[in-house]
Amino acid sequence: MINKVMTADEAVAGVKDGMTIMVGGFLATGSPEVLMDALVRKGVKHLTVIANDGGLDAGQPAGEFGGKTARGVGKLLEHHMVDHIIASHLGVNPKLNEQFAEGTLRYTLVPQGTLAEKIRAAAYGLGGVLTPTGVGTPMETELDELGREKKVVEINGKKYLLEMPLHADYALIRPSVADKFGNYYCKKATKNFNYVMAGAADKTIIAPEKIVEIGEIDPDMFAVAGVLVDAIAEGEKPWQI
Amino acid sequence: MADLKVRIAKRCAKEFKDGEFANLGIGLPTMVADYIPEDIMVTFHSENGFAGIDAMADESNLDVDIINSGGSYVTTVDRVKYFDTAESFGLVRGGHVRATVLGAMEVAENGDLANWIVPGKKVAGMGGAMDLCTGCPEVIIVMLHTNKGKPKILKKCSLPLTAEKCVSKIITEMGVMEVREDGIWVVELHPDYTKEDIQAATECELHFDPNMKAMEEE
Fold it and tell me: Is A135's CB within 8 Å of B164's CB?
């Protein structure tokens, strides 16, 4: 019988140089830290990362409360593992602008709501999404993450941008609680991109803070179906400030 | 300067009605929540994932799973509803977040807004600003009237836009302005300034509403 539960190193064993990964989290809250650590140990390079932002750098305050280590995508940036980041906000982690200036990292900005819908389109089989966000701004005229021009579609006199699905090789997600089949939910503000990313990649890996037995908790609690989950990594801890 | 920002925040707080759902940006816009009257209930959206943001957290009530869109730990009200990014911005684009309060680098007389990028400077990104300015029925700009004397309310924005024709109201230390089809109308003028003062601090031509009132401190 299938057993999805494994170590973080086993879970990311298939991630190769040059792949595209999407990572849940918002300024690292809700990011799967054990999976980031495992990728750092593996030492993969030239990744394209899809995430809301670049996480946090070592010693960087999250509000008034400083973190001792880099967090979330910040760990990958610290080790120069990323060639291209597709995100909505890049102003917080200073490693981003350092690496843009060095020419080792390039970026594509996508408005936050559009980013979620592009990912959702990939997960749920849509050919793209029409959004009014970005009309009349650089989002209309700049090329998208794959160098394609944006199409403007007019419906009932209102302009929309056609935004294409955003798919990855791996989705790396941090549930608060998951059962051993992979059904999961995320507490409070850790949901962010951790729901839409499930199924938007060839492989979906979760790193739950708590793993429970199948049938142990009320199925109505789960937000995302375990059928989308390929691997469950052990060892994720509550964040310590 | 702090006093001027308090003046702006206090005035902006009067824009909300009981039961409304609204979004406040980081910085001066966040201060608006401190001046919402006790007898009305406004639910504030935190676009990273919930409706019902409250004050900043301290060591006594901090939960590492609750941050605001600036990454600071915050608390929530009892009626809080958490959601993921897709639902959060569905609420925004769907027009369910009635108003967003944001700062601006430039506002044009037709309501165009630029507040996310200065070409050639550090790359930051729009985060949720483009979605909020496009989706919210009302976009209220709170800011100091000029950037150290340089007008920010212009005939045309020079910076890349956040959204087209989205601004409905501008609240500064000098007054309250509405963006209408035919330009920007001053509806309240602070007693410290004359019509000539506010016009001199503004690049585009201002219109003065026949029913213009004094911008009240309280």
Answer: yes
Residue A141's CB is within 10 A of a number of other CB atoms, namely: 11
User: How do the residues of chain A divide into helix, strand and coil, expressed in percent and rounded to 5?
Assistant: 25, 25, 50
Strands (E), chain A: 5-6, 20-23, 47-50, 61-62, 65-66, 82-87, 106-109, 129-131, 151-155, 158-163, 168-173, 177-179, 184-185, 201-206, 210-212, 231-233
Please indicate whether, in this complex, the C-beta atoms of B84 and A116 are within 8 angstroms of each other: yes
Candidate CATH numbers 2.102.10.10, 3.40.1080.10, 1.10.579.10, 2.60.40.10; the one for domain A5-113+167-233? 3.40.1080.10
Task: Delimit the domains of chain A by residue range.
Answer: 5-113+167-233
User: Within 10 A of B52 (CB to CB), how many other CB atoms are there?
Assistant: 17
* pLDDT given at position A68: 79
Q: Is some CB atom of chain A closer than 8 A to the CB atom of B59?
A: no
**Pick from B70, B68, B131, B94: nearest CA to A91:** B70
Give me the active site residues of B, please.
Answer: 47
Q: What is the mean pLDDT of residues B176-187?
A: 98
For residue range A22-58, list pLDDT tens digits in order.
999 999 999 999 999 999 999 999 999 999 999 999 8
DSSP string, A37-86: HHHHHHT--SEEEESSS--B-TT-EETTEE-SS-BTHHHHHHTT-EEEEE
pTM of the model: 0.96
The CATH number assigned to the domain holding B105 equals 3.40.1080.10
- Cβ–Cβ under 8 Å, residues B1 and B172: no
Domain hosting B182: range is 2-214
Chain A contact for B61, CB < 8 A?
no
**A–B interface: beta-carbon pairs under 8 A:** 165
- Number of compact structural domains in chain B: 1
